[in-house]
Amino acid sequence: MVFRKPFPVESTSVETARCARMIRVQQRHRVSGQAIRVASVFACRFTAGTTLYTAHAEGDAADFMLAGGHTPQELQRVADQVVRDGTKRTVRNRFRRTEVVFVSVGDQQWVRGQGWSHYDRVAHTSHVHAGCSFSTRTKPRCAGGDGKLPTRYVNGG
Ligand SMILES: [Zn+2]
Fold first, then answer.
1. Which of 39, 61, 69, 150 could form a disulfide with 131 if both were Cys (CB 3.0 to 4.6 A apart)?
2. d(CA 40, CA 55)
3. What is the reported pTM?
C-alpha cells in the first residue's frame, strides 16, 4: 500500500467535530483527496456579499482549495464527492454519512433535503464551500456572541 500524505487542514482554532470528520472523509478519497491542496476552516466573517455570519465563524464549514489550475469540472467533482459522502453510506465515510448540509461551487448550491439549485450570492469560483450549518444572523463567539449555536439558519454559505 502506498502511503499518501493527506492534504493539510488550516485555521482549526475553532472547529466542530462534525466538520473535522467531513474533512477527514475527503482526505481518504483517492481522486478528490489528491485534487484538494488545503482545507480552510475557521474565519470570523460574514458570508461574501451579505451581513450573515458564515458557518466558518463557528468552525462548522470548510473551504476545499484545489491544487493547480482548477477547472469548473474539477471543482464540481470534489463538490459531488462531498455531497455523496453526506447522502450515501460509503467505504470512505465508514458507512456513516457526514453531516454536511450545504455545499456551494460556482453559481450552484446543494442544500440537504433540497438538492442542487442556483446560488444567487457571490459565486465560489476558486474553491468548494462545504458547511455542516448555514449562514446565520446569530453572532458567533468570535464576534462577541454567547457561543450558543444558532437555532435559526439562513440558507447559504
Ligand atoms: Zn466557505
1. 61
2. 12
3. 0.90
